Amino acid sequence: MKKQIVTENAPSAIGPYSQGISCGDLIFVSGQLGLDPASGEFAPGGVEGQARQSLSNLRSILEAAGSGMDKVVKTTVFLKDIRDFAAVNTIYAEFFEGTVFPARSAVQVAALPKDGLVEIEAIAAK
Fold first, then answer.
1. Calpha distance 3→97 (Å, rounded)
2. Contact of 76 with 105, CB cutoff 8 Å
3. Residues 6 or more apart whose Cβ sits within 8 Å of residue 43
4. Which phi and psi (to 5°) does residue 51 adopt?
5. Which of 25, 33, 44, 69 could pair covalently with 116 via S-S, beta carbons 3.0-4.6 A apart?
6. Using one digit for the tens of pLDDT, what is the confidence trace for 73-92?
7. Counting beta carbons within 10 angstroms of the beta carbon of residue 103, is it exposed (0 to 12), middle (13 to 18) or buried (19 or more)?
């Protein structure tokens, strides 16, 4: 049985989808842009600022579901420019402590919603 996850601490969905879904022992978090949930605007600081905000949004959704970053098993990172890979890696590492990082894919895409620079989605355990 699936249950919708909703929090005001992350941006509202900008389409017909949920911020996250809890199903069985897993939590699926929709792709998070680097949007500030209060203003609806992109976080300042270019790709680094947007990556930090994206991961903060992801963390807020996980926490609303009773999970956390330490329970993330898989992420997908969508980059407008693959040359930002190293910069995003630096920010990404700040959010995942320890030596066992989640499995991950990172790809360059032609465009992201609202002309974002990075979007990150995740699957986590409860």
1. 28
2. yes
3. 34, 35, 36, 49, 50, 52, 53
4. -65, -45
5. 33
6. 999 999 999 999 999 999 99
7. exposed
Number of residues assigned to the chain: 126
Do residues 126 and 73 lie in contact, with contact meaning Cβ atoms separated by under 8 Å? no
Planar angle of CA 37, 38, 39, nearest 5 degrees? 100
Burial 15-50 (b: 16+ CB within 10 A, else e): eeebbbbbeeebbbbbbbbbbeeeeeebbeeebbbb
DSSP 25-68: TEEEEEEEESB-TTT-SBPSSHHHHHHHHHHHHHHHHHHHTT--
Unique residue bearing structure tokens 């049985």: 1
**Residue 117 token pair:** 């620079």
Write down the pLDDT at residue 99.
79
User: Which domains does the chain possess?
Assistant: 2-125 (3.30.1330.40)
Question: pLDDT tens, position by position, for the chain (126 residues)?
Answer: 899 999 999 999 888 999 999 999 999 999 999 999 999 999 999 999 999 999 999 999 999 999 999 999 999 999 999 999 999 999 999 999 887 899 999 999 999 999 999 999 999 999
